[in-house]
Structure to design on (268 residues):
């Protein structure tokens, strides 16, 4: 059976580390992985203003060709020991569907893999980053009316991402579908959370998409569960939705992190 880490970032990530591509690859090989996908945050669409303070959410467009070149080089270098795929983590941003489809049309042919994620939420004509900080989540919850309303807004946006027409190169893997739980110890999930996630999973199943089984939540102090959490992951598995392990590593040492949780939950 293939051992895959399908969600790994790179030194091209402005909010990540300077760890080199080969460091991620060599760690994956040491841990017995057979496949690894570099999924750097795709450049944000023209006209969209990054709402985080340092404006560092994504790969700058000016560096995209270097990113593609460097990943292709490391693919060749490690081809005997590890299948490396070139991918992007593409943001679904409500109102920027056409620009996102245009990006995918331009770069889709070079992509081996991809993830479609929601980080940015539209509320009353302004955009907010859901997962930047607990203070940001709190601010958004005051603006929406409550943490429950913020969860609701996130899941509605994920639904739009699943249904959106982004062209033939639209990524077929939905990223960290329960990311709203990142600060759940401070802002508990509403009672209806699982029912809502269940409906999203049905949309994922109908579309023939995969899920990112993302272990980054286990490393977050106020979360300590993967995305999706256990009950949702079990349901996804029972529905026949493929769950692809992703460390969401932003430093080389996190490559393959908590893979045993994926083994226990998905492979058993």
């Amino acid at each position: 059976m293939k051992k895959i880490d399908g969600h790994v970032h790179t030194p091209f990530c402005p909010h990540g580390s300077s760890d080199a591509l080969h460091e991620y690859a060599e760690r994956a090989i040491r841990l017995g992985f057979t496949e690894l996908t570099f999924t750097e945050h795709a450049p944000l669409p023209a006209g969209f203003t990054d709402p985080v303070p340092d404006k560092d959410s994504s790969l700058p467009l000016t560096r995209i060709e270097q990113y593609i070149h460097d990943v292709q080089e490391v693919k060749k270098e490690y081809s005997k020991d590890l299948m490396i795929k070139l991918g992007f983590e593409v943001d679904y941003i409500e109102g920027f569907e056409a620009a996102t489809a245009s990006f995918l049309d331009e770069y889709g042919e070079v992509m081996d893999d991809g993830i479609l994620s929601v980080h940015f939420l539209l509320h009353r004509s302004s955009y907010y980053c859901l997962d930047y900080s607990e203070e940001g989540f709190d601010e958004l919850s005051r603006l929406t009316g409550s943490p429950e309303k913020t969860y609701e807004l996130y899941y509605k946006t994920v639904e739009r991402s699943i249904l959106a027409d982004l062209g033939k190169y639209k990524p077929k893997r939905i990223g960290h579908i329960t990311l709203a739980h990142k600060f759940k110890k401070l802002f508990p999930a509403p009672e209806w959370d699982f029912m809502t996630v269940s409906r999203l999973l049905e949309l994922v199943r109908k579309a023939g998409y995969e899920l990112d089984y993302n272990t980054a939540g286990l490393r977050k102090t106020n979360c300590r569960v993967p995305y999706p959490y256990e009950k949702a992951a079990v349901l996804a598995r029972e529905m026949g939705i493929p769950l692809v392990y992703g460390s969401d590593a932003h430093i080389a040492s996190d490559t393959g992190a908590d893979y045993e949780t994926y083994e226990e939950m998905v492979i058993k």
